[in-house]
């Protein structure tokens, strides 16, 4: 795809790499540095278009990536959630890949084993077409409730396991009666403009302790370290590092139980709890050097 010259697409910010008045959306500290600016990014790369002309009409916006020296979080300082609309035309499923299915099946087995998910209730937030949730319920004999405004009822071959119900609405306090044993969410948190508020709302809506929590997001370190530039899209307002992922859960009233890289380093996973178990705290990493490299040499990513 022709996205213009490098000078048009990616460059260090014009004003000294600093962001006056910005605060980190994870730790709310103000020690923020801008390190990469990308012009004319399509605001919805996951929307399926029926024609070339329709694709070319997708609006664009500017992306200005900043990182927080306090917690290591990377985020788009100019993200505007108001320009996005997630509906049934949005499609980002990966399970058509046999390689990804192998990973996902192994993850299902791990979650069933770790949390003894047999005849339990599972809630998935941002469930997409429901493939993962249905597999988790089918293999463990569980009941599943998925929530996703972009869910297309006929998008999964028009079939649905009787133990899985998907709603095109947001998870909230009215769903506390579901009494979830596991709340999971995969590749959704990076789309949320206010992740602390989002996570706090989930915890408050659940209304009880003892609920296991599992989230998966793209790994910002893979993007910066290994040139995984396909995750630099407008929909991703957040790029989590191990430290910032652990921090946002801690700041939102959870107890992180472990952060790990997955899928060849492309993803980060976090297990957390709404109880008072201790965190191992072995996930200290820093993105300062990686971001500084881009400030002085943006071609280190765009040339890959």
Give the topology.
Elements (H helix, E strand, L loop, with lengths): L5 H4 L22 E11 L9 H5 L3 E9 L5 E3 L21 H18 L5 E5 L5 H10 L2 E5 L16 E4 L14 E5 L8 H12 L5 E7 L1 H7 L11 E2 L2 H10 L3 E8 L4 E7 L14 H9 L2 H4 L2
Helix pairs in contact: 3-4
Overview in brief:
With 304 residues, this protein is of the alpha/beta class. Helices cover 26% and strands 22% of the residues. Strands 6-5-4-7-8-11-10 form a seven-stranded mixed beta sheet, sandwiched between helices.
Features:
11 strands; four-stranded antiparallel sheet; 22% strand; single chain; disordered N terminus; Rossmann fold; 9 helices; 2 domains; alpha/beta; seven-stranded mixed sheet; 304 residues
Question: How would you describe what is shown here?
Answer:
It is a single chain. The protein is of the alpha/beta class. It folds into two domains: 6-87 and 288-302, no CATH class; 98-273, Rossmann fold, CATH 3.40.50.150. It is 26% helix and 22% strand. It contains nine helices and eleven strands. The protein has helices at 6-9, 52-56, 98-115, 131-140, 195-206, 220-226, 242-251, 288-296, 299-302, and strands at residues 32-42, 60-68, 74-76, 121-125, 143-147, 164-167, 182-186, 212-218, 238-239, 255-262, 267-273. The strands form two sheets. The chain has a seven-stranded mixed β-sheet with strand order 6-5-4-7-8-11-10, sandwiched between helices. Strands 1-2-3-9 form a four-stranded antiparallel β-sheet. A hairpin with a 4-residue loop joins strand 10 (255-262) and strand 11 (267-273). Helix 3 (98-115) crosses helix 4 (131-140). It is globular, with a radius of gyration of 19 Å. Residues 1-21, 276-285 and 298-304 have low confidence and may be disordered.
């Amino acid at each position: 795809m022709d996205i213009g010259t490098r000078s048009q697409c990616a460059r260090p910010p014009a004003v000294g790499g600093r962001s006056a008045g910005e605060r980190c959306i994870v730790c709310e500290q103000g020690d923020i540095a801008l390190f990469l600016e990308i012009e004319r990014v399509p605001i919805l790369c996951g929307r399926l278009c029926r024609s070339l002309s329709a694709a070319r009409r997708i609006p664009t916006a500017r992306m200005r990536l900043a990182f927080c020296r306090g917690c290591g979080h990377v985020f788009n300082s100019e993200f505007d959630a108001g320009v996005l609309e997630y509906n049934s035309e949005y499609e980002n499923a990966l399970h058509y890949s046999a390689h990804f299915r192998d990973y996902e099946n192994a993850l299902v087995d791990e979650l069933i084993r770790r949390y003894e998910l047999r005849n339990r209730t599972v809630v998935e937030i941002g469930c997409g077409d429901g493939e993962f949730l249905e597999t988790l319920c089918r293999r463990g004999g569980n009941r599943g409730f998925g929530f996703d405004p972009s869910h297309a009822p006929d998008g999964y071959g028009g079939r649905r396991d009787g133990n899985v119900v998907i709603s095109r609405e947001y998870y909230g306090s009215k769903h506390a009666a579901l009494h979830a044993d596991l709340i999971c969410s995969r590749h959704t948190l990076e789309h949320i403009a206010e992740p602390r508020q989002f996570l706090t709302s989930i915890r408050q809506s659940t209304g009880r302790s003892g609920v296991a929590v599992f989230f998966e997001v793209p790994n910002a370190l893979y993007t910066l370290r290994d040139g995984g530039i396909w995750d630099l899209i407008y929909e991703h307002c957040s790029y989590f590092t191990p430290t910032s992922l652990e921090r946002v859960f801690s700041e939102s009233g959870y107890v992180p139980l472990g952060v790990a890289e997955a899928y060849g380093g492309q993803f980060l996973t976090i297990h957390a709890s709404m109880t008072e178990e201790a965190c191992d705290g072995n996930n200290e990493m820093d993105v300062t050097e990686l971001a500084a490299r881009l400030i002085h040499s943006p071609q280190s990513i765009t040339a890959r």
